[in-house]
Amino acid sequence: MNQLDALFAFNTQALTLRAERSQVLASNIVNSDTPGYQARDFDFAAALKQAMEQPQADGPLAATAARHLQPGAVAGRLPDGTPLLYRTVSQPSADGNTVDLDVERAQFSDNAVHFEANLTFISSQIKTMLAALQG
């Protein structure tokens, strides 16, 4: 089973991070008219490298008390601890909002294409394994 986990680990981690990045980018787009909102993002390559270097947990952590922190509860960090960074301002606005809708939409589309590519790679790996098992 460890070999199967290792086979799918990279694309699984990439899919998880792509989904989290979609949420961050969507939040930027939704808050494009909010005065003072600072656009956020994270370094995908660094986050993927960190995720691949961490030992895999046996399962999700369970909150057994009401005061336990929930995943993603630490402000400015993803559930795995990756820091959310502020996007560099290309056009400052009078209300302090740093969201550039064109940039955010382009980033969101790029992330969606990469998400689909990861799904295609995983599907291809599964088909190859099935073909090998069926002979």
Verbal overview:
The chain is mainly α. It has one domain (11-53, 72-134). Helix content is 54%, strand content 3%. It has helices spanning 2-30, 44-53, 101-134; strands at residues 40-41, 85-86.
Task: Give me the secondary-structure topology.
Layout: H1 2-30, E1 40-41, H2 44-53, E2 85-86, H3 101-134
Helix pairs in contact: 1-2, 1-3
Order of strands across the main sheet: 1-2
How far the N terminus sits from the C terminus, by CA atoms, comes to 20 Å
For the CA atoms, what is the radius of gyration? 18 Å
Q: Strand portion, in percent?
A: under 5%
Which regions are unreliable across 5 or more consecutive residues at pLDDT < 50? none
In which range does the helix fraction lie? 40-55%
Mean pLDDT: 85
Number of strands: 2
By helix and strand content, what is the structural category? mainly alpha
**What is the ordering of alpha helices and beta strands?**
HEHEH
* Structural domain count: 1
Shape: elongated
Query: Total number of helical segments?
Result: 3
The biggest beta sheet, please? Answer: 2 strands, antiparallel
Quick recap of the structure?
The chain is an all-alpha fold. 54% of the residues lie in helices and 3% in strands. The chain has helices at 2-30, 44-53, 101-134; strands spanning 40-41, 85-86.
